[in-house]
Specification:
This protein has about 250 residues and is mainly beta. The chain is built from one helix and 19 strands.
Length: about 250
């Protein structure tokens, strides 16, 4: 038996200034999990952590495609040290929500503080990847064996793309190289209609594999649509959050 305690605080909007940008915390979410039946429990969640969805405000920040956090210092009000939390915190994550001029939506997670803590402090850097997108369309997806699809832009980025349609219900796309330069991947029909009902992603950073679940079998005219950032720029934005009130 697994017992979850989810505490969600829609606290007062917190605005904290960083050197290069403003960070506005939208809410503070505390998740705690106690596993009572350890023999039969399967852990799928990132339990026992604090999550802070926030807006990063700065001119031009909306051009960012992906982000991750680096923490140099984090502690709660009792002095307990905290670590970066979340799923695969070392990997870049896609930005949240729709781009808005001068605003980026991100989420910072840290390990859970002591229960007696009333606030926390976090200091570090927000790393963002940005650059202009280029859309390319590739065909030849209906291959039972792995097939490499080439394009001049992919060659410039040092990226290799292979596809394989194992059956009529799935299509696998493997990306070898800096996958941070791939902002979006879609499977489209000859008429440009989305052909998938969901996908799963494994890996990240230096390569990834996406498994698409198809609405209909791919044909020779089906399209692999890639949104590519050839000239990817990495920026490091310092931030400091002080006395963030806990739920």
């Amino acid at each position: 038996m697994i017992r979850y305690l989810l505490i969600l605080a829609l606290s007062l909007l917190v605005e904290l200034r960083a050197e290069d940008a403003d960070f506005k915390i939208l809410k503070v979410i505390e998740i705690r999990e106690t596993i009572l039946d350890k023999e039969n429990a399967v852990e799928f969640t990132n339990a026992n952590e604090i999550s802070m969805p926030m807006h990063v405000i700065r001119e031009g920040i909306e051009e960012s495609q992906s982000y991750k956090f680096e923490i140099t210092e984090a502690k709660d009000s009792t002095g307990e040290k905290l670590k970066l939390g979340g799923f695969k915190p070392e990997a870049f994550a896609a930005v949240r929500g729709r781009p808005q001029p001068g605003r980026l939506e991100v989420e910072l997670s840290v390990t859970a503080p002591k229960r007696s803590a009333t606030s926390l402090d976090v200091k570090g850097f927000l790393l963002v990847n940005s650059g202009a997108k280029q859309n390319i369309m590739l065909t030849g997806l209906n291959s039972k064996e792995p097939r490499e699809l080439s394009h001049e832009i992919l060659k410039k980025c040092g990226i290799k793309v292979r596809v394989q349609s194992g059956n009529d219900e799935t299509l696998t796309v493997e990306i070898e190289g800096d996958s941070n330069k791939i902002a979006d991947v879609q499977i489209l029909s000859e008429k440009g209609r989305p052909m998938t009902r969901g996908s799963r992603t494994d890996g990240g950073g230096n390569g990834l594999k996406k498994s698409f679940y198809l609405r209909e079998p791919v044909t020779e005219g089906s399209i692999l649509s890639l949104s590519v950032i050839a000239d990817l720029k990495l920026e490091k934005i310092p931030f400091e959050l002080r006395e963030v009130v806990l739920p």
